[in-house]
Design goal:
Helix content: 25-40%
Largest sheet: 9 strands, mixed
CATH topology of the largest domain: TIM Barrel
Mean pLDDT: 95
Number of domains: 3
CATH superfamily of the largest domain: Metal-dependent hydrolases
Number of strands: 26
Distance between the termini: 42 Å
Radius of gyration: 24 Å
Number of helices: 20
CATH architecture of the largest domain: Alpha-Beta Barrel
Shape: globular
Low-confidence stretches: none
Length: 570
């Protein structure tokens, strides 16, 4: 008897992505589409017994930076290890198109500084077989992948393409500049871009300290660009901002006027800053009010602290700029650890100024009161008394000494975790409040970026395991957590063909052992072009991930199937 379906998944607990309660049933796939959900009588050419497993849609991550990696790599790890089957890249106003030959190095410097992707890896990995955004998409379209990718037009490259050096000096755009940017934006949308992204934060700059070209873009410039999306008939605006010019409400009102003028939706990054600990609540209220009034503005919220991993095997740690450490920094890890365990070396490093010659701008902001040893499995909501400062007090030593000793753990492979946002009061209760807002989207994983000291592409796994199972004092319904990173994120960016397990939808599916779902500690690998290093983080509990009907991962191991493609928005 011939098989009726390409694949049948039997006896799983189906969470269809809509938020409805899970139910026991089967799911059939024909080609790259879901054919039936519920009770399936016909046989599949391949059958998988999902008894005891959750059957969910593939996750849709709407805030990533695979703009470079997607050019040279068919496996978009680590996102593809965490149940993600579709990513949206080009966020934060940085990327690689459009570009003129003379501006390539500037875009690399901007990506290196803003997103911590090593310049040598980008120089070697990018072939630059494009100038226009449409040509960049054509290059992306040539490579098969393990997941689907969607691209956005970034403000930085667009501004530099039109204004040249004047963009780098952050000069005000002229009417002619704005008209050109509007036309190029419409052209990019018609070629398949999903939207336009911009950065208005002081934290985004090159390693040389130059701020992003879009930092001081005026309302007129943003409106003109947004109207380019209106000209093309689609597109969303993505914004990252400090929200302090001069206050959150003023900046929000300006961006709301841009959205209303162009009739486009907008998403913006939202987390709790440790200096202004309640500004997030005002922005949450403003966006909810806009939504009630028919203006589609939604915050994108990370499900845990955004934090830096500091380690001898990473790109940064508290003693990296001291003269004595710099003298041994070139040595292999094992030799550095051996040298640092010498009491004389330890005493010298601890006596030296940690900040005098540091190029790591964030280092002075990292206090030992909010810095924690990073265990395995990792704890992203550690208690205050687990901090380096608290441990130092318990030991009767300086925080510097406690941090030094912690860095030498596990033969120098251990990390220190330093939350930058969402942990002002040593609790994730503010995140719980953000996630409780139905207008809020889940995201900000930055997959593909910050490869030397941040490893947040594991957000999808954490959202489900921590907020759906592990956290005491504030959990969420598992069915709704699945909805939050499937149908909710897909529909927010205009993808109607995925995110839900229903006949006719794309067969992007996860089979999850919920009890086993978890994260390992991040580890450093050397697999980028030019020998570049990056942090990766594995997950457990994914029995299988299916992309467009093809099994791409079984128990976290790639099968070799590459059904992913560039998705164009029209």
């Amino acid at each position: 008897m011939d098989a009726a379906y390409t694949l049948v998944i039997r006896n799983g607990t189906i969470h269809d992505g809509t938020g409805r309660a899970g139910f026991r049933g089967d799911l059939a796939v024909a080609g790259d589409k879901i054919a039936a959900v519920g009770e399936v009588a016909g046989r599949g050419a391949t059958e998988i017994d999902a008894d005891g497993l959750l059957v969910t849609p593939g996750f849709v991550d709407i805030h990533t930076h695979y703009d470079g990696q997607a050019v040279w790599d068919s496996h978009l790890a680590p996102s593809s290890w965490h149940g993600v089957t579709t990513v949206l890249m080009g966020n934060c106003g940085v990327g690689f198109a459009p570009v003129k030959r003379q501006d390539r190095d500037l875009l690399i410097a901007l990506m290196e500084g803003v997103e911590d992707i090593p310049a040598p890896a980008l120089h070697e990995g990018l072939d630059w077989n494009w100038e226009s955004f449409a040509e960049y998409l054509a290059v992306l379209d040539q490579r098969p992948r393990d997941i689907d990718i969607c691209a956005q037009l970034p403000h930085g490259p667009l501004r530099v393409f039109v204004m040249g050096e004047r963009a780098g000096y952050r000069e005000m755009a002229t009417e002619d500049d704005i008209a050109q940017m509007r036309a190029l934006t419409a052209e990019a949308m018609r070629a398949g871009a999903f939207g336009f992204t911009t950065s208005r934060t002081l934290s985004h700059k090159t390693l040389a300290g130059e701020y992003t070209p879009s930092l001081r873009a005026t309302e007129a410039e943003l409106t003109g660009i947004a109207r380019g999306m209106q000209d093309a008939g689609h597109g969303m605006l993505e914004v990252v901002s400090d929200w302090n010019s001069p206050d959150p409400a003023t900046e929000f009102a300006m961006l709301r006027r841009v959205v209303e003028a162009a009739g486009c939706p907008m998403v913006f990054s939202l987390s709790q800053h440790h200096e202004r600990t309640t500004a997030w609540r005002e922005l949450l209220t403003l966006s909810a009010q806009a939504a009630r009034e028919g203006v589609n503005i939604r915050p994108v919220v990370p499900p845990r602290p955004i934090g830096i991993l500091l380690g001898l095997d990473g790109s940064q740690h508290p003693f990296a700029a001291t003269p004595s450490y710099r003298a041994i920094a070139h040595l292999p890890l094992a030799e550095r650890v051996r040298a640092m365990r010498d009491p004389a070396m330890r005493a010298r490093i601890l006596s030296e100024d940690r900040f005098a010659s540091s190029t790591f701008a964030l280092l002075p902001r990292l206090s030992f009161e909010r810095m924690f040893p990073f265990a395995d499995p990792p704890d992203y909501e550690p208690p205050r008394d687990a901090s380096i400062a608290a441990r130092a007090a318990q030991r009767g030593c300086s925080p510097e000494a406690a941090a030094y000793d912690a860095l030498l753990g596990n033969d120098g492979q251990d990390f220190l975790f330093a939350p930058l946002t969402n942990y002002a009061h040593f609790t994730l209760d503010p995140v719980h409040e953000m996630l409780s807002d139905r207008n809020a989207l889940v995201g900000l994983s930055d997959g593909g970026a910050h490869v030397g000291f941040i490893s947040d592409a594991s957000f999808p796994t954490y959202l489900l395991s921590h907020w759906g199972r592990d956290r005491s004092g504030g959990q969420f319904d598992v069915a709704d957590l699945i909805r939050r990173q499937t149908s909710d994120t897909a529909q927010a960016i205009g993808l109607q063909d995925r995110g839900v397990l229903a006949p006719g939808k794309l067969a992007d599916i996860n089979l999850i052992d919920f009890a086993a779902l978890g994260l390992s500690r991040p580890h450093m690998v050397q697999d980028l072009p030019a020998g570049g290093r990056r942090l990766l983080q594995r997950a457990s509990g994914y029995a299988a991930t299916i992309k467009s009907g093809a099994v791409t991962y079984r128990n976290g191991v790639a099968t070799g199937a590459l059904p992913g493609r560039l998705v164009r928005a029209y």
